[in-house]
């Protein structure tokens, strides 16, 4: 892996461990020599992880829609800030720049980004590892819902297994580095969909 795209909240959340986890993941990325790709904001968990990686002299690429950059939430000190036209372009650009993905706690945008990148993996549109840093049990209900979807035969067990979960950033990066995508009879070409 060269860079990890981190999906996370533009809010710090209500618990201090969310920010602490963003900082710990930032340190883990720097220690592993991995760059950060993220949503480009200077606020919330987004700003926290970006500042941590920058403080460690790591590479940070932010991708932000023009409409959000105009609201003065774009981070001004990044290695590279890419201003794009839409949220769709933002997600596609982040996916292209990243070798893997991790979700920290966040809201609707974080959920949507995580599920879209998981869906793309399920469809064979990429073979990159996807991790979930489960801070303080934040994602326990989500994992229960995924397990329920498997039990009700809406999600295949092998697709559920594509989501790597840990409470420890270093352990999560190790499991992502050793990730082997599932074998597929036919991978869907993104240009065909």
Describe this structure in words.
This protein is an alpha/beta fold and 193 residues long. It has one domain (3-179): Rossmann fold. The protein is built from eight helices and seven strands. A seven-stranded parallel β-sheet has the order 4-3-2-1-5-6-7, with helices on both faces. Helix 1 packs parallel to helix 2. The longest helix has 16 residues, at 16-31.
Can you describe this structure in just a few lines?
With 193 residues, the protein is of the alpha/beta class.
CATH topology: Rossmann fold
Structural class: alpha/beta
Largest sheet: 7 strands, parallel
Cα-atom radius of gyration: 16 Å
At CATH's second level, what is the architecture?
A: 3-Layer(aba) Sandwich
Total number of helices:
8
Low-pLDDT stretches are 186-193
Write the layout of secondary structure elements.
Layout (H helix, E strand, L loop, with lengths): L2 E5 L8 H16 L3 E4 L5 H12 L4 E6 H4 L10 E5 L2 H11 L2 E4 L4 H15 L7 E4 L6 H12 L5 H4 L2 E4 L2 H9 L16
Parallel strand pairs: 1-2, 1-5, 2-3, 3-4, 5-6, 6-7
């Amino acid at each position: 892996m060269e860079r990890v795209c981190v999906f996370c909240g533009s809010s710090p959340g209500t618990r201090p461990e969310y920010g602490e986890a963003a900082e710990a993941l930032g340190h883990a990325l720097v220690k592993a020599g991995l760059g950060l790709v993220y949503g480009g904001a200077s606020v919330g968990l987004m700003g926290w992880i970006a500042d941590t990686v920058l403080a460690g002299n790591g590479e940070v690429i932010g991708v932000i829609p023009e409409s959000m950059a105009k609201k003065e939430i774009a981070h001004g000190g990044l290695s590279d800030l890419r201003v794009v036209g839409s949220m769709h372009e933002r997600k596609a650009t982040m996916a292209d720049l990243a070798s893997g993905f991790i979700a920290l706690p966040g809201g609707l945008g974080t959920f949507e980004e995580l599920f879209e990148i998981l869906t793309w993996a399920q469809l064979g549109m990429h073979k990159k590892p996807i991790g979930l840093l489960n801070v303080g049990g934040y994602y326990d209900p989500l994992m229960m819902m995924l397990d329920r979807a498997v039990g009700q035969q809406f999600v295949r067990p092998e697709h559920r297994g594509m989501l790597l979960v840990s409470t420890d950033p270093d352990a999560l990066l190790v499991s992502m580095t050793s990730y082997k995508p599932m074998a597929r009879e036919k991978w869907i070409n993104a240009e065909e969909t």
